[in-house]
Amino acid sequence: MARGLNSRLQGLGTTIFAEMSALATRLGAINLGQGFPDTDGPAEVLEGAVAAIRGGHNQYPPGPGIPELRAAVTEHRRHWYDLDYDPDSEILVTAGATEAIAAALLALVEPGDEVIALEPYYDSYVACIAMAQGVRVPVTLRPPDFALDVDALRRAVTPRSRLILLNSPHNPTGAVLSRSELEAVAQVAREHDLLVVTDEVYEHLTYDAAEHVPIASLPGMRERTVSISSAGKTFSVTGWKIGWVMGTPELVTAVRTAKQFLTYVSGGPFQHAIATALRLPDSYFAALRTDLQKKRDLLAEGLAGLGFEVYPPSGTYFITVDIRSVGADDGMAFCRELPHQCGVVAIPHIVFYDDEEAGRPLVRFTFCKRDEVLTEAIGRLRTAPWARR
Ligand code: PMP
Ligand code: GLN
Questions:
Q1: Is 98 in the pocket of ligand 1 (CB under 6 A)?
Q2: Atom of ligand 1 at shortest distance to CA of 171?
Q3: Is residue 118 a contact partner of residue 352, using CB atoms and an 8 Å limit?
């Protein structure tokens, strides 16, 4: 029991990302744990932030975000998905998707309301549902393809259900919900009058034939959906923490009511740079996907060569493996041992599950690193005692 910590937050401890990144730094290990690229985003975007600082954009930006960024979010959403949002009343800029998720849950959930979420859950969901005094109800995605079990989703609905918290492309599994899976979610939401909060931060990171479909684009969903995205992944600037919320004026006003007392505003100069970034030509987004898809293949092949059962992802920058294929079974112990064994850090899935059996043997590696780093990591993993040589 952590002394002084309230009962809502008991057991949440330190995030796995902080723990594993600290371990990587301490041991000089290659960090394939926390998902952040080791190269910078596009030069014109970086220069945009420098220019904004030099240009004097260094005081509080307006509460909803600077008008240029809200206009760029609107244009981006229309260009890629043919969805229209009014920049003045239907867009809110946040301190990353993290704040958007927190503000949405704090704004929309009453104590005791049930929040249906895909398990494994991104770690901040558990904490934010707890802070909102909601009750999380998992719908578990299972290997090999981590597809949505629509019957399980239907069984998860009760009279206390308030909202479905969706994440696609999905961290940590890399699954991208198909149009028919999303239609099933939409049908459940409409039938039971549920809200949907959808985390789409990996919207541009989809591979092969996978296509990101925003659930707000399905019939009857725009008016019940709070859509969330952010700049970190799309423009390789995870430290900038510029995110945004899109929805009806009522829903966005609700989220803003909570958001204004969390940070009020943030990232003034970076907002200017992201307005530029969202207007980059399609070729930028295509090159990002091609580049990451090659990295996915490089790491997936390397991991398979070591003897792992690999579940190649259709999106995000994470690969999941089942460690039972190399004679282990406890992902947490495996990940704590790995940097000592061979100087590589990975993330155990188990921290993202209520169903510990489901998460126990799964481990996540990120591939958003330079090719030579991925190759070096595979070489190091090959020296581990369990590796097939
Ligand atoms: N949602 C998911 C699924 C994520 O993986 C992340 C972090 N990478 C976030 C939200 C947080 O995004 P941000 O850094 O914009 O706060
Ligand atoms: N989203 C990143 C990941 O899943 C980490 C973000 C964080 O450290 N909170 O690796």
A1: yes
A2: 3
A3: no
Distance from the alpha carbon of residue 203 to the mean position of ligand 2, in angstroms: 16
- Structural domain includes residue 301: yes
Q: Which atom of ligand 2 is nearest to the CA of 21?
A: 8
Co-location of 172 and 321 in the same domain: no
Indicate the pTM of the whole model.
0.97
- Full residue range of the structural domain in which residue 95 is found: 43-282
Pair 304, 274 in one domain = no
- Output the CA 17–ligand 2 centroid distance in Å: 6
**Structure token digits, residue 64:** 């909803």
Q: What is the chain's pLDDT, residue by residue, as a tens digit (389 residues)?
A: 667 899 999 888 888 999 999 999 999 999 999 999 999 999 999 999 999 999 999 999 999 999 999 999 999 999 999 999 999 999 999 999 999 999 999 999 999 999 999 999 998 999 999 999 999 999 999 999 999 999 999 999 999 999 999 999 999 999 999 999 999 999 999 999 999 999 999 999 999 999 999 999 999 999 999 999 999 999 999 999 999 999 999 999 999 999 999 999 999 999 999 999 999 999 999 999 999 999 999 999 999 999 999 999 999 999 999 999 999 999 999 999 999 999 999 999 999 999 999 999 999 999 999 999 999 999 999 999 999 87
Q: Does residue 97 share a domain with residue 34?
A: no
The Cα 177–Cα 372 span in angstroms is 31
